Amino acid sequence: MADNIRVCMLVWSYWPDHEGGAERQCRKLVHSLAEQGVKCEIVAALLDRRMERVIMDGDCRVVRLGLLCSFITPMQHFVNSFCRLFPSDTGYRAVAFWLMLPVMWLARLSFILAARNYFLHDGGSIDLLHVHESGWLAGLGVWLGRYRGFQVIAKEPLFPSLMPIGYDVPFRRIWTHLRRQARFVAMDGYISADLQRHGIPDEQIIILPNGVRVPNEYADVAVHRSVLYLGNFSQGMMHKAFDILVDAWALIHCKVKDARITLAGSGEAVRWKKQAQAAGCLESMTFTGWVPDTDSLFRVSGIFVLPSRMEGLSNALLEAQSWGLACVVSDIPGNLALVENNVNGLVVPTGDARALAAAILKLIVDPELRVRLGREARKKMIACYEIGLVARRFVQTYKQLIQINSERTGFSCP
């Protein structure tokens, strides 16, 4: 047990806000750590004025800061409506960015000031700050850690790592410099090597994967052959490769008229619906929007697809494999860390719509292959990525870092 460890999680959004991969992983880890006796507190942005500033998530206290953060969502809805007047994706994204820039800048400034006040005066006593991204929040975490004297670790969720901090962040040059002083959690060896290429010393890097709660049940992939995709549509084609997915599905629709794909996730999907309609395959695609209970989707699917051009260790992919789905993924590092071609999934070249379509079609027509790949994928999740196992490794990491900090400062842990 780890009854004496007190950890604060710093994350931009947290339940019951809409959760992306980092936010969902944070909550899974928090609950598993709490089961092992770690005292966790979560500090996040106040993204909805209707939410209470302080709530409890099980045994964990959630504190929301930054009053101006609550203006982001209504402004984003207004900007999205306005930007639909622009036909091109490039024009849409450029106009949306510049319209939202002052809103985001002021919202983040309000969060920075509120976080400084909270950690200096109201934050209580913590042993370690765990930041769930490697961007500006990681730099802010290091800055706060200097004042309070606690260790700071930051999760690097993406390959390539240490992405530039945008102009919509106040004091971005300061955070760019400070974040390099954190200890980084790299989710796989590819990310670790990339951090080292960016000049992060090996001793500042800890390799720990995302974890997944493996359900007691699993999908009947011998019966179900429908395809599932989960992702944030606002991240665009350069990240999630929606253009490739729609092109591939158009090829599949031509050959198997009764094939169906469900696309779930938050964000703006209007462009991809238009592309699908132009390709003549929209009738076989179901866009659900954000779904709070993704288990209901995994339960009735047979195939999961992730064609991303850029990805870390995808939570959606982990969850799909834990349910025993047969997965088709692009050959980017984050996917290759989880999927071995024709062993526990199928791997296709990134950006190749024909290869993606061929792999999905192969699984649609071959239930035995779906079962074999899904079974091996689930076995790997149980052996290596179950959230309890991952949380125990985090506890050991926390203990080591807290001990290092106590030796450096001359104080021992209570």
List the keywords.
Rossmann fold; eight-stranded mixed β-sheet; six-stranded parallel β-sheet; disordered C terminus; alpha/beta; globular; 15% strand; 414 residues; 2 domains; single chain
Overview of the molecule:
- By secondary structure, this protein is of the alpha/beta class.
- It has helices at 21-35, 72-83, 89-122, 136-148, 172-178, 189-197, 237-240, 242-255, 270-279, 295-298, 315-322, 333-336, 353-365, 367-385, 387-409, and strands at residues 6-10, 39-45, 54-57, 60-65, 128-131, 151-156, 183-186, 205-207, 227-230, 261-264, 285-289, 303-306, 326-330, 346-348.
- The chain has two domains: 6-211 and 387-409, Rossmann fold; 227-385, Rossmann fold (3-Layer(aba) Sandwich), CATH 3.40.50.
- It is built from 15 helices and 14 strands.
- The strands form two sheets. The protein has an eight-stranded mixed sheet with strand order 3-4-2-1-5-6-7-8. A six-stranded parallel sheet has the order 11-10-9-12-13-14, with helices on both faces.
- Helix 5 links the parallel strand 6 and strand 7.
- The longest helix has 34 residues, at 89-122.
